[in-house]
Write a structure and sequence with these properties.
The structure is a homodimer.
Chain A: H1 14-33, E1 37-38, E2 44-46, H2 47-54, E3 64-66, E4 72-75, H3 80-91, E5 98-107, E6 119-128, H4 133-149, E7 154-160, H5 161-168, H6 175-188, H7 195-204, H8 209-219, E8 222-223, H9 226-237, H10 241-255, E9 261-264, E10 274-283, E11 291-299, E12 310-317, H11 318-324, E13 335-339, H12 344-354, E14 360-361, H13 369-378, E15 383-387, H14 389-394, E16 396-401, E17 407-411, H15 412-420
Parallel strand pairs in A: 1-5, 7-9, 13-14, 13-15
Antiparallel strand pairs in A: 2-4, 3-4, 5-6, 6-12, 7-10, 8-9, 10-11, 11-12, 15-16, 16-17
């Protein structure tokens, strides 16, 4: 009986892996130039880490299990909580900001559907220790630069939750109730019909009619002219220091060359722990699943036993950007050495030399000359080098370019020199 | 309350990750030059995949769990079975040999102890489709070359299970009983006292006194002169075609420049599915846990529903070699830009330019000049660039080498040119 891979997961074969590694490597190159250091955390964590952050409701989506010591564990559904846990355990004394990035797999027990998998990859950063617009702006600019580095044009939506939180605090001080409202607002960005549910919930919470109107106005407040949108927010909620900081973030974004974005006070991110700046980046070509990046500033560390440390971060859905990004892989010419049983050992020595520079295949099947040529053909080798007795005697080897069919004669030295460059 | 990482797992912080990535990248470079393509399989698989391969006994060491669809799953304890499963599902029509490599995490529920972790990393290859000495020799030579590429001198022990299997087939045809004998022989390499258990088990299986003596002689047969060891094996078991192939493998190893090894017919690998060549590589500096690589030729694919396809592969214990290998990381000079509130936006523009070439940090904390200099100091920046009003007006920037203390004055063009190289 044939065993299959688990439902909703994938095998990545060499051609696809090469593309993924090439994209990964471009992202790594950018994020390191911005001074972020990589962190690797365990693939599974204590279940409590994620229920503390997201509530018990998340368990339904998790790969949770009891280990053999009867401890509740789970495969990680995301990386922010593990990175914050590691920060609390091991990095509280590091100079601030602590700038970290990760590229790891995550797991969610979801109904398998197009473009969504149960094991998926996230590329993200966390800038820990600064509550300043400088940190917010860097994080947003980095997200846009990462996407651009792999040919993805992102549509940036930036909001600021402090405005909604300010209004909601007049409705209820209960964090969970605030969270429920935020989740409905998050859904509204995808489904405007949710507006009714928002009204109902706010009235249940005994919000005044005027306050409901204000909240609806803030949720609907969006525009390409960010400074004017911020001014309109001031008109609704009055002077808030967070709005001044938001303005400064926009000024800094323009210093990073980012001028084209939408300020959208309806971006709510659906999670309780975001406090100030929130942003989402959408890309074309992905249908309904167009969000490729989400992030914001948050306070999570105190939840896990650390101090009240402000952070800003984001996660990029790596699998999603793989569908639309530039997947070009740097091509290195490959060579197949064709030998006879009598010359096979010598072909291995030549292979060892050439492998300093390029990928080389030698015969592993004991095939005859014709079958070896066929192997070179079907595997798409760029060159074939004949290593026969005549060639070894004369020291003169014939190299065939498999695309052009051109054949040239080279000494071993000339051969090495050709591929060294 | 502070939440910790799960017992027996690790967080890798940036400095260590950089070292691990540097070693990984050297290994990748080598394996690609040998024409192997990377495969990525899911982190968890159906439990049956591993019990089919290793028996129900392995469950005690696994992180197995039921998913929400009540299917028995497990985090992978190793990669050979998943790669073979993926081969059966998706690669049977590929031209042979199919040469694959992987670098992935694995999971075992073991008592945490020095140098052994519950999540650990394996770097390995599988060459699928050839039963020839050419494939065995390439795989062994590749393992040695990989270790050498990161400065690990491996002591190679090569055996061939066909000799023991030939003798055991005269004792019993039962695969499980043969497996039990092999596991005791595997333990004998670490603990000679196991010899008594071997004798007892063989006598239980009704082996003749003469056969027991022959088996013990083969298990103890080892020597630096491989050809003479093979001849001695012939003296015990007679002519076997596998011994001729073993000789050929040694001839090919010498073409790869590998002359220093021990032929050891006692290498048993403790797993049922190895058929011919088996090898283990030990390294100094690791105490009792000195094995850094193990592999051999095997037939596993028919177990998973494919044909009777011969393969050769190995796994390198990445965490173990990290303890003894060359961990040098290519150093790229890093720059911290020091600015004032008035010049901060301009410093971001300069940072964007410099980030084409080198890692750059700008102030994210709203710090004053002195605190920014201190940050550069404590984080070990190589250079500090002052971006003040005077500098922006004159177009002349002062770059301080933090190691030598030397300070030079540069235009923006000169600055870019300096770091481009």
């Amino acid at each position: 009986m044939e065993i299959s891979k688990p439902r909703g997961t994938r095998d990545f074969l060499p051609e696809e892996v090469a593309q993924r590694r090439s994209v990964e490597s471009k992202l790594r190159d950018v994020v390191k130039k911005w001074g972020y250091g990589e962190i690797i955390t365990p693939t599974f964590e204590e279940l409590e880490l994620f229920t503390l952050k997201s509530g018990e409701g998340i368990i339904g989506e998790l790969y949770n299990f009891k280990d053999k010591g009867d401890r509740e564990m789970t495969l990680r559904p995301e990386l922010t909580a593990p990175v914050m846990r590691a920060y609390v355990n091991e990095m509280q004394s590091f100079p601030k900001p602590v700038k970290l990035f990760y590229f790891e797999n995550c797991f969610r027990y979801e109904r398998p559907q197009k473009g969504r998998f149960r094991e998926f990859w996230q590329f993200g950063v966390e800038s820990i220790g600064s509550a300043k617009p400088e940190s917010d702006a860097e994080v947003i600019a980095l997200a846009m630069t990462l996407l651009a580095s792999v040919g993805v044009k992102g549509n940036l939506n930036v909001g600021n939750l402090s405005v909604l939180r300010h209004l909601l605090s007049q409705v209820t001080a209960d964090v969970e109730s605030q969270g429920n409202v935020m989740r409905i607002i998050d859904k509204m960005t995808k489904d405007p019909a949710e507006e009714q549910n928002l009204e109902m919930l706010l009235l249940e919470l005994k919000a005044s009619f005027e306050l409901v109107q204000k909240i609806k106005a803030v949720v609907g407040l969006a525009g390409k002219d960010g400074f004017s949108a911020i001014q309109k927010a001031r008109d609704i909620v009055g002077q808030l220091p967070e709005l001044d900081a938001f303005e400064k973030t926009l000024v800094l974004l323009s210093a990073y060359g980012i001028h084209d974005y939408t300020v959208n006070f309806g971006v709510a991110r659906g999670l309780d722990y975001y406090t100030g700046i929130v942003f989402e980046i959408y890309a074309d070509g992905l249908g309904a699943q167009k969000q490729v990046c989400g992030g914001g500033s948050y306070k999570l560390i105190s939840l896990f036993g650390g101090g009240d440390v402000p952070s800003t971060g984001f996660g990029i859905g790596f699998d999603r950007i793989m569908e639309i990004c530039d997947k070009t892989v740097d091509q290195v010419p490959s060579i197949v050495l064709v030998s006879k049983p009598e010359t096979h050992a010598e072909s291995l020595k030549i292979a060892s030399g050439l492998r300093q520079y390029v990928p080389v295949q030698t015969d592993l099947m004991g095939r005859n000359f014709k079958a070896q040529m066929e192997f070179a053909n079907t595997t798409g080798a760029d060159y074939v080098l004949i290593v026969g007795e005549k060639e070894l005697e004369s020291g003169c080897f014939s190299l065939k370019n498999m695309e052009s069919g051109e054949q040239i004669s080279l000494s071993l030295d000339e051969l090495m020199k050709k591929f060294r460059n």
